Amino acid sequence: MDDKKAEYQHIQQTVSPVVEVTKPHKTMAANSIPKLPYALINAFIIIFTVSDRNRLLLLNHFLYHRFAQDVSGNVSIDTTSNPCGNESDEDPLESDSHRVQSMTSSMIMNFELVVSLLGILGSIFLGTFSTCLGRKAQLLIPISGYTMRALSILAVAFWNLDLSWLYVGCIAEGLMGGVPGVYLGVYLYVSDITPRNRKRTLGLALLEGIRGIMGSGINIASGQMIQRTTFF
């Protein structure tokens, strides 16, 4: 009996130092943010933000171009002439410019309403079944809807189709979660790969900061590019 007790104490003394050495290492690894996955998701956010802001600006410019063709037969409307002038002194070109701007704004508002209202349903679905779908599907579903809308814009512009076909892309994007669904998937993924401490808050804050900086920068850059090249 004494031999077994001595053998047990010898084994315990041999194993315990190993546990004491490896335990802090595991704790440090669990409390760190994985560099490669976090860098990849930040790169994705940069690319997606640039794409989304450019799409909106180009869509506005394309719609203005199409409505200008319908109203005046050309795109030589000057949107900067006498912005504060008296309406009674408006010339035909300025009146057409106001009409084209109003038509463009109305259609953009209709598009955003369709995407936003349907996007609520899509986001609720994605949020409810996020655990069952998995993080990959959580990102792929809204990205697929986003791509379908981009392809619908490309088809309408390339084949000069009726503008009502753009609603097909809006419906597809909204039902699949839209842009909010993409960001929902990104934030859920970041929360999964970060530890439950201040580093998770820091990781999400950095992600949101990158998104805001890229969005502001691309708005300025795209506006300058459109002004200098006119695109059409």
Automatic annotation (TrEMBL):
Signal peptide: none annotated. It comes from Elysia chlorotica (Eastern emerald elysia). One of its GO terms (cellular component) is membrane. SUPFAM superfamilies: MFS general substrate transporter. This is Major facilitator superfamily (MFS) profile domain-containing protein. PANTHER family: FI18259P1-RELATED (PTHR23507:SF1), ZGC:174356 (PTHR23507). Keywords: Membrane, Transmembrane, Transmembrane helix. It comes from the Eukaryota. GO terms for molecular function: transmembrane transporter activity. The keyword Glycoprotein does not apply. It is found in: Membrane. It is a multi-pass membrane protein. The keyword Transmembrane applies. The chain crosses the membrane at residues 33-51, 107-127, 139-159, 165-190.
